[in-house]
Amino acid sequence: MVPECDRGVAVQIGGGIVPIPLLAELVRTGAKIRALRRPDRTPEKHYRPSRRLALWDQARDLTCRFPGCGKPADRCDIDHVRPYPRGPTHPGNNACYCRTHHLGKTFGGWSSELAADGTLTWTSPHGAGYTTVPLSALLFPGWNTETPLPPAKKAPGKKDGAAGKEDGAPPEHRGLAMPKRPRTREQDQLRGIEAERAANHIENAAYDAEMAKVLGPLTPKPRPEPEPEPEPDDDDGEPPPF
């Protein structure tokens, strides 16, 4: 991938950074280059993005968009930040998540919000916020990846300001709704805390086992019980002072 705005470096999705001289040599020896076209502003009609849209999403994100995750984008799921069908299949509503963090967003109490330029803000189950930018913004700072969502269409027969459950949903999907949560957010948070504690316990136990191979048992030896103090001897040969 070599955006038109930047000719200093190329990136292979799922691979690494390719210097331009090496790219020129690869092309000379038969490598193929395909232009990356900006997707249409109109949302696609289906849940699964087209090949063209998927390539754009992967080229923009390059990795999983969860903070600190480096899973290559071509091995990630392309998720609807706002769930489909209320959220359209559009680059302004799509982001690449590895399967672990995709499940964390769907069932783990995490939520995310995508800006038009690809900046993604995560909110943890505890309310903490984390902001990430797509890796392409760091490698190609001059590449304009803004893909704002088009304004939502009004449902026919609805007045201005009237909110309906199906606003923005494609006609063929009217009547669909997201399934109800099997647990409340508070229950999900408690389950997350318990799972984290259990994982920490397992990790600490494994670490202790490894250290025990080197240092010996890590359990402290029981301290010996202190010897009882001798009782004072009242008969010391001196008469009492009375």
From TrEMBL:
Native organism taxonomy: Bacteria, Bacillati, Actinomycetota, Actinomycetes, Mycobacteriales
The HNH nuclease domain, residue ranges: 50-103
Residues covered by region (Disordered): 147-242
Basic and acidic residues biased stretches: 157-175, 184-200
Xref: InterPro entries: HNH_nuc (IPR003615)
Protein's recorded name: HNH nuclease domain-containing protein
Residue spans of biased composition, Acidic residues class: 227-242
